[in-house]
Amino acid sequence: MKKQYGILLLCFPALLASCSCNKAKKEAESVATAQTTTASIVKEILNQEELDKNVSAIVKFYSPECPACQMSMQPYEELAQKNPHITFYAVNIEKDGNFKEAHPLHAIPTFIAFKKGVKGDVVVGFNEEQIQQLINKFSTGELKSTIIEVTGSEDLAQKIAHNKLIVKFFSTGCGFCRMIAPVYEQLAKIHGKDIMFLAVDIDRLQDLARQYAPNGVPVFYAFKDGKQVDKVLGARVDELNRVVTELAKSGDKPAATTQAVEKPASNTSEQTPNSIPAED
């Protein structure tokens, strides 16, 4: 009996160590499985071109050093698991890529909804209830697409022919384009019921760039009944607001074509916060 007890005492530490090792191994396997699952659900991207324009998507902009971003990581993964009909993306703003340049941020984390590549509603900060509301809008068709990206020359021509609209020509590498982007988005939300707001990336559509933006970007064109009625060259906030407001208030009858007077982009005396020249 004593001999058996002595053997048990000798074996107990080994058994305990074995249990601890098995527990640690299971925990490591669980973490690895979770990481693998996470990688297969939330897609890490950096460039706008990586966004699948045929799907409903939510894009999270984050920084690995941001505590709020870290806290939102697991709930965001869980939302992705619960909503397989929506593609969940993540953009690390600490890495190089044009996605963050195309969508200026006021805080992180920021969540933006996209429907067929068109930007919709935005949630600043992780609010699970508000993000769930975004998800619900995909199902009900209530997601508002404020700015429509032009796909080519034919697409632009068709839209110009039948709508009252504003077209923004921009480049993702243009600082002034990024500065005025939130203004354009806000105007789209205010006047979206009366005007169609378009955007043309001149880096992708160089034929349209040569035709409409030979003097640099940003540049904005106002069209009504197939005719150009105004133009704003440069990130001139007050002038853009005036053009959009007047177009929204204009009646349905065809308006005479007018050409806005362009201020030289090189005139440094005009470079106030509300009047920023175009970038070549």
What can you see in these coordinates?
With 280 residues, this protein is α/β, with parallel strands linked by helices. The chain is built from eight helices and ten strands. It has a five-stranded mixed β-sheet. The longest helix is centred in the first third of the chain and has 40 residues. About 12% of the residues have low confidence.
Summary, kept brief:
The protein is an alpha/beta fold and about 280 residues long. It has eight helices and ten strands. The model is unreliable at about 30-40 and about 255-275 (pLDDT under 50).
Averaging pLDDT over every residue, what do you get?
Answer: 78
H-E string = HEEHEHEEHEHEHEHEEH
* Name given to the CATH homologous superfamily of the largest domain: Glutaredoxin
Regions with little confidence, pLDDT below 50 for 5+ residues: 28-38, 253-276
Outline:
globular
> What integer value in Å does the Rg equal?
26 Å
The secondary structure category is: alpha/beta
List the domain count as a whole number.
Answer: 2
CATH architecture of the largest domain: 3-Layer(aba) Sandwich
Distance between the termini: 93 Å
Alpha plus pi helix count: 8
